[in-house]
Amino acid sequence: MSDHGLSYRDAGVDIDAAQRAMEGIAGMLRATRTPGTLSDLGSFGGLFRVPEGFSSPVLVASTDGVGTKLKIAFLANRHDTIGEDLVNHCVNDILVQGAVPLFFLDYIGLGRLQPGVVESIVSGVARGCIANGCALLGGETAEMPDFYAAGEYDVAGTIVGIVNEGSILDGRAVRPGDAIIALGSDGLHTNGYSLARRIVFGELGLSVDDVFPEESGSVADVLLRRHRSYLRPIRPHLTEGVIHGLAHITGGGLVDNVPRILPPGTAARFDRKSWELPALFRVLQQAGRVEDLEMFRAFNMGIGMTVVVDAASADSLVREFTEAGENAWIAGEIVAGDQDVLFS
Amino acid sequence: MSDHGLSYRDAGVDIDAAQRAMEGIAGMLRATRTPGTLSDLGSFGGLFRVPEGFSSPVLVASTDGVGTKLKIAFLANRHDTIGEDLVNHCVNDILVQGAVPLFFLDYIGLGRLQPGVVESIVSGVARGCIANGCALLGGETAEMPDFYAAGEYDVAGTIVGIVNEGSILDGRAVRPGDAIIALGSDGLHTNGYSLARRIVFGELGLSVDDVFPEESGSVADVLLRRHRSYLRPIRPHLTEGVIHGLAHITGGGLVDNVPRILPPGTAARFDRKSWELPALFRVLQQAGRVEDLEMFRAFNMGIGMTVVVDAASADSLVREFTEAGENAWIAGEIVAGDQDVLFS
Predict the structure, then answer these.
(1) Chain A residue with Cα closest to B190
(2) What is the value of ipTM here, to two decimals?
(3) List of domains in chain A
(4) Which of A2, A6, A168 should be substituted to probe chain B, the one whose Cβ sees the most B Cβ atoms within 10 Å?
């Protein structure tokens, strides 16, 4: 290379470093292989055999990010958990349609390759994939100089799962009298971080290393709690017909997500006294002086998934979910109404 | 809402604006529907029926971004072409394994929702999907205050396609004596932009509205030329057995991409005199005083796809590609060697 000429590396892109990072994560990807996985790292695209045993197989796909929860990861310099957030969020998004995951692909955009950081991120993605029986089939790490701030990055992920056409859940079976089972969340999951950061770092003036008020653990510990996957407890019941609808409580909270599975003529009524608001949400609401409805739109308020079931099955399902390690309870019921969410 | 309390909107996130943008793009998504598409916008995940007629269906998936080509879109304030870049890049990435596209999902991360911009971006994605017969099944637009610079964003996309297991292309059929057909690129496609920007805006001191030296059109016109999809010309030949290997010339150029399909004991020799370097690359090389090998790693150098075929079929295929509107020529041959790329 000439002393005076420009190279790709001069422009901030280091293909060799990218190659090294890729080798570092190759082992992690291999650990996520499932029987359908046909390709190895380095293919242009990942190959996955359509599983047999589905009479009318339908693919269910979803793309999502982690949002500004990433800022907490940057501040705390902990990069190995957000990959799990990403995978679990996506797993839940297709689970609510009755699908089980097949494979996942991740995208990481960053300013300059810091090989340890990328490997940390991918280790979380791989851990999430393994826990959900999902192959990490590929991904892209894009080095974009002058694009992301130093030490910052964005991540997105895409999941593809499968369901038999006759087992697709879309809420059409939901009817008045059904019970709503809530499955507890672990912290904020991946929603409401812009507001939460403003309250925690602004109003409360805390740093990531401070103890979070009324919680056990630092601000980083509490705000980086992982988005929970509900695949394990729900999967055994997907084809039984007992589940009439599932809503994953993400951006928009209970208020915006539950109506997505309510047929015309129905509404969801939640009994606010059926659960105690986790300290985290009480602290945020008080410190930010946030209105109730705003809280229920910005945050999950302790509920990560709602399961609408036949009332007769509710108690036994709560018991099964509890035995499977979930914080589960009957949080409300389906009533006649206008496809909205009521609180009593 | 209380006068003093914080709302999600105060923290920079406007769920209603997101809702409006979503409605704006709903029509575009619908226009991309294909027979397999089962879901409409608003589902948690997109639904797509596995097509029939494949004895051993294998899904091929790939995730990619547009890289710092986005910076040109920002500077030129043109946001409706990069979606096509994104789709076409992904289409080519699975095409080289013999797969045809089924569906696509996009991710847009941005600082603050500018509804017109998001709709522009998605219009390009939708146009790319329609041109490739691919359903835009879903996506995510993530508003991330304090994350992306004002007016900037990142985009990534994931494609899922399908191929019969027996028709997977992986280069194992490539053998010495095969001809290498080159299909011409349209500009830089999506690679080498960090170096190109440094040369064009730094060394040459041009702005996006200046005329690009030796080219017809402005710097923006030339640098935003769309990544070309090679699906249409190649698709008719995918299952004929005449194509021994395909390499999509992306990051790493001919030097790094062609070896990905070379079996042990083979090498690819390109005849530099078989094509004239497009003016764009000559200008970049001269102004940046970039070494030859560096040019061939950073840029596609006028070749967007290489098609390795039986030598006996090469001439007729070149004719067919040409009739289909491609700039196609025999650019080299497979020789005995060490899985590398040679130039003569």
Answers:
(1) A142
(2) 0.92
(3) 15-167 (3.30.1330.10), 179-343 (3.90.650.10)
(4) A6
